[in-house]
Amino acid sequence: MTETTDEKGTPPKVRRRPARGTIRLVVAALGLLAVCVLAVTVPVPMVTLGPGPTFNTLDNQDGKPVVDVTGLPTYPTSGHLNMTTVSVTDGLTSFQVLRAWLDPQQQVVPRSAIFPPGQTQQEVDAKNDADFAGSETAAVSAALTYLDLPAQVVVGPDIQGLPVNPVLRPGDRVVSVQGKQIGRISDIRAALAGTTPGGQIPVEIVRGDGAPQAVTVTLIDLGNGQGGLGIAPVARPAGDEKITISLSGVGGPSAGLMFSLAVVDRLTPGELTGGTFIAGTGAIQATGQVMGIAG
User: Fold this and answer.
1) What is the model's pLDDT at position 128?
2) Full-prediction pTM beyond 0.85?
3) Which of 12, 87, 171, 191 is the most exposed place for a label (fewest CB within 10 A)?
4) CB environment 97-116: b (16+ within 10 A), e (fewer)
5) By three-state DSSP, how is residue 196 classified?
6) pLDDT beneath 50: ranges in the chain
């Protein structure tokens, strides 16, 4: 057999092609590297819910009482009535979601469950702030109703799914119903006893800074054969009495229960907590009914 040589008589170098197995291994490694990069850099449409900070509703924040009462007798108290919160973490990568799934203190949910599609972050924040303000109003109303204290009764925000009376507007103060003075939420139910849906009754209201005015209200069917005004009544302190709730950096409706307990503790002798540490959460209606939470 003869061999070819170059001009210097040196046999040429033979270049071997990489084995197919080696090529496949390199491609697989590059693919795995790309997946890993995506897993730690690209956000996925999931968020985590985890334990957030707690706030003592009997204490101060930024130098001010969380629950401040003026014009009403108050009583010293101690202990803790802490409202719990839920921390929401957004912008997660696949790696972070996987790690959260393995953490018993974290719950992974679709992002759309917390941030509705089509809403901006500003809109979500505004709703959370409005819900929190509503929980403060409902807490004061629930406490006044529980303690059976005289109050002003106003028309609260419309509640989704319930009938709404077009004559009465949120913020209207209800002075009397069928000539009966209204100083508690229960007074409305008493004034409507024996009425039926479709009936028309006189209601005296104060709208804004205006003078009292009489309106005719057509009663709405509340589903039990009893006539109703078609409003969500809210009790607030009467006259110069004030109950102010101040807590920054928190949103959503689930603080109402603990706020209402703090108001009751401030306005009654003795310590509701017995000097112990109590933590809890829950939304509350203006009438005192405790509702479920979403977090």
Assistant:
1) 85
2) no
3) 12
4) beebeeeeebebeebeebbe
5) coil
6) 1
User: Residue 139: what pLDDT?
Assistant: 93
SS3 per residue for 94-134 = HHHHHHHHCCCCCEEEEHHHCCCCCCCHHHHHHHHHHHHHH
Q: What is the pLDDT of residue 213?
A: 94
Estimate the crossing angle of helix 94-101 against helix 20-41, to 10 degrees.
Answer: 70
In this structure, what DSSP letter does residue 79 have?
S
Whole-number pLDDT of residue 41: 62
The confidence score (pLDDT) of residue 32 equals: 63
Residues 6+ apart with CB under 8 A from 66: 55, 56, 57, 58, 59, 60, 245, 246, 247, 262
Fold of 49-87+121-291: Pdz3 Domain (2.30.42)
Cβ pair 233, 171 in contact under 8 A: no
Give me the residue spans of the domains in the chain: 49-87+121-291
The closest of 277, 262, 279 to 75, measured between CA atoms, is 262
Task: In whole angstroms, give the CA distance from residue 132 to residue 271.
Answer: 26
- Contact yes or no for 107/48 (Cβ under 8 A): yes
Tokens of 35: 């997946």
pLDDT of residue 111: 87
**What was the pLDDT predicted at 162?**
64
Six-digit token pair at 123? 């809109």
CA triple 243-246-248, angle to 5 deg: 165
